[in-house]
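Dear colleagues,

For the upcoming journal club I promised to circulate an example of a predicted protein-ligand complex. I picked one with flavin mononucleotide because it came up in last month's discussion. The inputs are reproduced below in full, followed by the predicted structure.
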Amino acid sequence: MTLRTPLCDLLGIEHPIGSAGMAGGTAAAPLAAAVSNAGGLGGLGSVTRQGPDWLREQIRATRAITDKPFSVNQWCFLLDRAPMFLDPCIEERVPSVTLSFGDPTPWVAKLHDAGILALCQVQTVAGARIALDAGADAIIAQGGEAGGHTGSVATMALVPSIVDIAGDVPVVAAGGIADGRGLVAALALGAQGGIMGTRFVAATEATAPAHGHKEAIVSSSADDTVWTDVFDIVDGLRWPEGISGRTIATPFAREWHGRESELRQQRDAILGESTVAGEAPERAHSAYAGQAAGLVHDVRPAGEIIKAIVAEAESVLARLGR
Ligand SMILES: Cc1cc2nc3c(=O)[nH]c(=O)nc-3n(C[C@H](O)[C@H](O)[C@H](O)COP(=O)(O)O)c2cc1C
C-alpha cells in the first residue's frame, strides 16, 4: 500500500510529509534541504532578528543543497507591517509559501501573481473559510496540541471539520504528529499529509538555539507543555486573537503562566538589563514544542526520521487493511 496522495503531485514531493517552517533560525537551510532530499517538503522559517536578508541567504543555501521543492513560512500579521519579508520569496521564486497567523488574502494573490503556491495554515474553521475564499492551494489545519504558536481546537476535531468544507482543496494536518501512527490518523481524518514541527526540532540538522531545546523535547512527555502568552510578552510581540504559544513548561513559563498581566506591567524589571539590547536573558527563552514531544525520544537525521515515519505508516496501513 502506498502513502502517495494528490498533495504529493501538487507539491512535487515523494512522501506526504513536511517539516514546518519554524521561526528563530531553527528551520534553516540544513533542515529544509535534508527533508526535501528525503522526499518530503522541507520548510524554511522566515522570522529571525536578522530580517529578510537572512531569508534570502537561506533560500539560496537550500538550493545549493537540494534541487527538490521546499517551502518558506510567513506570518501574515507581520507581513501587514513589514511586507518586505515576502520579497525574497518572490524574487527567488520559491516553489511554495505557507501563510500563517492573520489574514492571508492579499498575500495569496501576490504569490499567485508570481506563480508560487500558497498553502494557508489555519487554526479554526472560520480561518479555513477565509483561506479558501482567498484561493489557497492547500489548507494546513493546525491543531492546538501543535508546538509553537497555535489555536485551541484539537487536530482530531479540526482536520475533518475543514476537510468537510474544503472541496477539492487538499487539507494537511499539523499538530501532534511525530510518527507513522499519527500520519495514518491524519490520513484517516481526510488529510492528504502531515506537517511536523516538534519532531523536526529534534533533527540533527535543526539549528535550534543553544539552550537545550532539542534535549528538552527528547526528555519531555506529552503533558509537559503549556499554551501561554508568557514568551510573547517577553518578546514584546502582539499576536492575532486566539493565538498563543505552546512551549515546554520551563521554570520561567511555570512561574509566569497565569500571571501575564503582572509580567506585562513589570516586564523590564523582571527581565533585567539585558532587554535593553533586545535579547531576553536565557532563563526567559522559550522552548516551543507540542504535545508530540512525548513521542520524540532521540535526535536523529531528518532523512532517517522520514524513512521511519513512512515505514511505520505503511505497516500501520497494512495492519488496518487486514
Ligand atoms: C519551534 C517551533 C517554531 C515554530 N515556528 C513557526 C513559525 O514561525 N510559523 C508557523 O507558521 N508555525 C510555526 N510553528 C508551528 C508549525 O508550523 C506546526 O504547525 C507545528 O509544529 C505542528 O505541530 P507539532 O509541533 O506537533 O508537529 C512552530 C513550531 C515549533 C515547534
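Two points we might discuss: The chain has 16 helices and eleven strands. Residues 20-23, 26, 45, 47, 73, 100, 121, 142, 146-148, 174-177, 195-199, 201, 288-290, 292 surround flavin mononucleotide (CB under 6 Å).

See you all on Thursday,
B. R.
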